[in-house]
Design goal:
Layout (H helix, E strand, L loop, with lengths): L1 E2 L6 H9 L19 E10 L20 E7 L6 E8 L2 E8 L16 E6 L2 E10 L8 E4 L1 H36 L2 H20 L2 H5 L5 H26 L2 H4 L1 H5 L1 H18 L2 H28 L5 H22 L7 H4 L1 H36 L10 H16 L3 E9 L2 H8 L1 H18 L5 E4 L4 E6 L4 H16 L2 E2 L3 E2 L2 E9 L5 H17 L5 E3 L9
Helix pairs in contact: 2-3, 2-12, 3-5, 5-8, 5-9, 9-10, 10-12, 14-15, 15-16
Length: about 550
């Protein structure tokens, strides 16, 4: 029965029940939407009359009383005022008040949800429940033995433990990715996760039960406040995640107006001061937001955003779960605990898929970084290491050679008359010459040697653990190989080589390269197409 005024005396409600003014709930309706009226629910509990134990005591030695003990629970943490009246034999035998206007310390039953235990005597007990709330009137009523309620509470604890554990892991994971990558979308996603976590922690009653149970006002206003934070975090994350600046420039240009609109809405709710208005307005916005996120995700995908292919199904899962919860809450589909939890299951799927997408983005970033680092060290024409890579690759080998008293060698190579080849045959032929020379040299050097394109037509070979004789032998082999090479059937190529070798402990790496360069200069002045060795440096006296 829905009463159009608040404050109907319980005896008048009892008379209304006896006079048939309560409507039988054949459809198991548990939701009555938003209403300022009070909702009355009647339960008729029949307990058969059973003979007492002959001794008056049970197996545990406790005194046996006629009747049964049952726990009555309202499985909704956000209802403000719940008054319960027990009538037996036409008399009001008990009155109890539960709901989130009561502090946890004053609750008569230790439970996250409003509940109480009552001993029902033999016969019929009429239970009248009066509910008044500014929040949606969803009133699922459960009655069972204390053991049954404890078992149900344990199942709920496992569910929410798994849910919160998963969300916290996703939160920490993405915060760590933010600090590693310094990419804004990761911290915005973390805030989006945190906002939902806190919002859910509040409307499921966990926060009131564990944290602020002595401040009912906080519980009543924190839910709409955190819902607003969740909506704002969702909008901000979506614009960043979909890279709206690139893929949705018109939306990106309106972002300031969107944020301003949310701020104005928050101010209106604060000034208006109505908890019911705040909750109702934000439920409408939350529904609109879900549709908006789906639409802009679709348009971002059409505009070429790869991550949108994760975003659209993720939001669809979250929206689908929220829709199931809403339909169950409003009584459109049969109410069940799993239907009511649809939003939590949907959001967990959404958050998991979005985390996978951000992991995919992280992989792309890392691959791009490795590719960029590789490209920065590789000459694109010859596919050899460039001069920039020299220090990174050679320095560790040089230091190892110094410790092990090894001889190191450098071959500095210059193609003869290369400018004339470019002038006579064109730069495309010159490029082909460089490619073929690089391939010939690479095919002859050892796997432990390092080959670099040192300049325009210059190459450098670094030989670790090689003396002057080994270096000269390789240099002469390379010279002959290239001299026999003919490019494009008509272009002959020769090259001059300067060779230097020394114990790594006797000279610096720069000094060895300088010696090879001086030897190359001598080879160029000595007629080209030859190998010249630099003089061995004197062994330092100890």
């Amino acid at each position: 029965m829905i009463n159009d005024r608040v404050g109907l005396p319980p005896r008048d409600a009892y008379k209304a029940l006896l006079n048939g003014k309560f409507t039988p709930n054949h459809t198991r309706q548990v939701s009555f939407g938003f209403t300022s009226n009070e909702v009355w629910i009647a339960l008729s509990i029949r307990v058969p009359t059973l003979p007492l134990s002959p001794t008056g005591f049970n197996a545990n030695g406790d005194v046996t009383l006629p009747g049964v003990a049952r726990v009555l629970k309202i499985d909704n943490a956000w209802l403000d005022t719940i008054d319960i009246f027990f009538f037996a034999s036409g008399e009001l035998v008990r009155k109890a008040s539960i709901g989130d206007t009561q502090t946890i310390g004053n609750r008569i039953y230790n439970s996250r949800m409003p509940a109480l235990e009552h001993h029902f005597p033999p016969g019929i007990t009429e239970v009248l429940i009066r509910v008044v709330s500014a929040d949606p009137m969803t009133i699922p009523v459960y009655i069972g033995t204390p053991a049954q309620m404890e078992k149900q509470a344990l199942v709920n604890a496992y569910f929410y433990g798994a849910l919160y554990g998963a969300l916290i892991i996703l939160f920490v994971y993405n915060v760590m990715l933010f600090f590693y990558l310094k990419e804004r979308r990761y911290i915005l996603y973390s805030l989006y996760l945190l906002a939902f976590l806190l919002f859910n922690f509040t409307y499921t009653g966990h926060g009131y039960w564990w944290v602020w149970g002595n401040v009912p006002y906080v519980q009543q206003w924190l839910m709409p406040a955190l819902m607003f934070c969740y909506i704002s975090a969702g909008v901000t994350f979506t614009i960043s995640y979909l890279d709206a600046k690139v893929y949705l420039p018109r939306l990106y240009a309106l972002r300031s107006s969107i944020y301003a609109g949310l701020s104005v809405l928050a101010a209106i709710m604060l000034v208006y001061g109505s908890q019911a208005f705040a909750v109702m307005a934000q439920l409408v916005i939350l529904t609109t937001l879900s549709i908006w996120m789906l639409l802009i995700g679709f348009f971002a995908y059409k505009n070429g955003n790869v991550l949108a292919k994760f975003f659209v199904p993720a939001i669809a899962l979250g929206t689908g779960g929220a829709t199931i919860s809403s339909l169950a809450t409003w009584g459109v589909i049969p109410y069940s605990q799993w239907a009511f939890r649809g939003i939590e299951i949907g959001i967990l799927c959404e958050m998991s898929l979005l985390s996978i997408s951000l992991g995919f983005n992280f992989k792309q970033v890392q691959e791009a970084k490795v590719s960029a680092e590789t490209s920065a060290r590789i000459d694109p024409l010859t596919n050899l290491y460039n001069r920039r890579a020299f220090t990174q690759l050679v320095h560790p080998l040089w230091e190892l050679g110094k410790r092990n008293q090894q001889s190191m060698a450098v071959l500095l190579i210059d193609l003869d008359w290369f400018k004339q080849i470019n002038d006579d045959f064109g730069h495309h032929v010159g490029d082909k010459v460089l490619e073929m020379v690089a391939q010939r040299i690479k095919a002859r050097v050892r796997s432990s040697d390092l080959l670099f394109r040192w300049g325009g037509e210059e190459f450098l070979v670094f030989l670790s653990n090689a003396d002057i004789n080994e270096a000269l032998s390789l240099a002469e082999t390379l010279r002959r190989e290239v001299a026999q090479m003919i490019v494009l059937k008509s272009v002959k190529v020769t090259m001059s080589l300067g060779v230097a070798s020394s114990l790594a402990s006797n000279i610096t790496l720069e000094g060895l390269i300088k010696q090879a360069d001086e030897a190359l200069y001598m080879a160029k002045n000595g007629g080209r197409n030859c190998v010249v060795a630099a003089p061995m440096p004197p062994t330092p006296k100890h």
